[in-house]
């Protein structure tokens, strides 16, 4: 025992640890958070490269939230609680991932007979799986724990709504092009870093009672820094097809590809500056990618509304008297502690794309037409021909040919 105490004392007094021990607690937290932030940014790019590891992140986030509920009520020995929680996670993931694969890779699914059958009956299979879990829950009810079991049933479903549904939005954003995934997530990371830095050096005025360390100075500094960062990152990424083109399956090469003719959103255009900016900069026009203008909306949301995801998580943790969701990352908490803002951001990006960006997709319509029977294709062809002739477009097209 004495040797262990001496070895600990010797370790603490070693030259390597002495500078850190002499450093004030505030600065020690700064260095720990800073080093681990760089490590997490590197890991973030690794996630982008590997792709499927995202599913592991979803499972980890789900596990952290479910564990909180289980740790609070584990003394009641609720039957099948953990088993049912993981089973419902499997069911919901099967439903959402199946919907995504069917929607994004329709031609590939139609070519393979097993996939075509699974796609055709996907929703029925998903419902049958969920119904099985529902019956298992009913059979697990114990007289003295009715209320608590229904409480945990709701806990599981709300967790699935928060984690899996938002992750489904992230994947859909990714299929619109890598830029719709990387820029929003990077803006949230940038805002978190810059708000911390501005708050660390200039913070004086508390922002919200739920998070006493958050300050108005950090909030405002993070806002402007994130907008500038978003514009710059968007400019760099908009010039690369790999980032702006959606993932598609090529029937000719029988491979997935990320290659397309960039839309107008990713082509440089001249914009006339307002008079007050013209007098300030001396420029009459500025050359930008239209996506850079959209990045201002993304950056603003990441800076203004994104932190409320963190405040929500803070209130949740305070309700259960815990500091972090887990201790996976020293100085930062669990994976869910890093994704609390990201999930809210993913939902906004998905809604933003659907409302202001996405239009009819001709290639997807053609893929669906080719999957029809020949008589159905001929019917659509004749209907389309009659429509174009009635509108006066078809003769003009024939003259050009």
Automatic annotation (TrEMBL):
Source domain of life is Eukaryota
Q: Name one Pfam family in it.
A: CTP_transf_1
| Principal location class | membrane
For this UniProt record, the keywords arranged alphabetically read as follows: Lipid biosynthesis, Lipid metabolism, Membrane, Nucleotidyltransferase, Phospholipid biosynthesis, Phospholipid metabolism, Transferase, Transmembrane, Transmembrane helix
* GO terms for biological process, alphabetical: CDP-diacylglycerol biosynthetic process
Keyword Lipid metabolism listed? The answer is: yes
Indicate the transmembrane segments per the record.
30-59, 124-142, 149-171, 177-203, 215-237, 291-313
GO cellular component term of the entry, any: endoplasmic reticulum membrane
Q: Which residues form a coiled coil?
A: none
| UniProt-listed InterPro entries | PC_trans (IPR000374), PC_Trfase_euk (IPR016720)
According to its UniProt record, the EC number is 2.7.7.41
Q: How does it sit in the membrane?
A: Multi-pass membrane protein
> Which molecular function terms from Gene Ontology are attached?
phosphatidate cytidylyltransferase activity
Pathway involvement? Lipid metabolism; Phospholipid metabolism; CDP-diacylglycerol biosynthesis; CDP-diacylglycerol from sn-glycerol 3-phosphate: step 3/3
Entry's localization field: Membrane
The reply to whether Membrane figures as a keyword in the UniProt entry is yes
Catalysed reactions listed for this entry: 1-octadecanoyl-2-(9Z,12Z-octadecadienoyl)-sn-glycero-3-phosphate + CTP + H(+) = 1-octadecanoyl-2-(9Z,12Z-octadecadienoyl)-sn-glycero-3-cytidine-5'-diphosphate + diphosphate; 1-octadecanoyl-2-(9Z-octadecenoyl)-sn-glycero-3-phosphate + CTP + H(+) = 1-octadecanoyl-2-(9Z-octadecenoyl)-sn-glycero-3-cytidine-5'-diphosphate + diphosphate; 1,2-di-(9Z-octadecenoyl)-sn-glycero-3-phosphate + CTP + H(+) = 1,2-di-(9Z-octadecenoyl)-sn-glycero-3-cytidine-5'-diphosphate + diphosphate; 1-hexadecanoyl-2-(5Z,8Z,11Z,14Z-eicosatetraenoyl)-sn-glycero-3-phosphate + CTP + H(+) = 1-hexadecanoyl-2-(5Z,8Z,11Z,14Z-eicosatetraenoyl)-sn-glycero-3-cytidine-5'-diphosphate + diphosphate
Q: Write out the similarity annotation.
A: Belongs to the CDS family.
Functional description taken from the UniProt entry? Catalyzes the conversion of phosphatidic acid (PA) to CDP-diacylglycerol (CDP-DAG), an essential intermediate in the synthesis of phosphatidylglycerol, cardiolipin and phosphatidylinositol.
What the entry lists under PANTHER family is as follows:
PHOSPHATIDATE CYTIDYLYLTRANSFERASE, PHOSPHATIDATE CYTIDYLYLTRANSFERASE 2
Q: What is this protein called?
A: Phosphatidate cytidylyltransferase
Print the organism lineage: Eukaryota, Metazoa, Chordata, Craniata, Vertebrata
